[in-house]
Structure prediction request, 102 residues.
Amino acid sequence: MKDTTTGKYTVSFGLALAVTSLLSALLVVLKELNEETVLAWMKVATGHHWVTHGVLDLLLFLLLGIVFAQLGWGARVSGNALALTIVTSVVLSGLIIAGFFV
Prediction:
């Protein structure tokens, strides 16, 4: 019989995706509200604020995934719960951004 358990790293990086998605949406709002400070710094850091945003998202995702794996969170979340967490986070992130710009 095939093993259908969700792996430690799958869960850890799935949770990292959910958290990073939300924080990325909040960063969009933060930099739009602070164009002369945060947005300006992000432009200077890499030449374009979206490049800096992407780099920060990638670093946060990797860091959180590794930390969550080390904490053993992979053994505490089922595959269904993980999928629901990711979908909820991505939808909420979209609503945060859309709500801000409306």
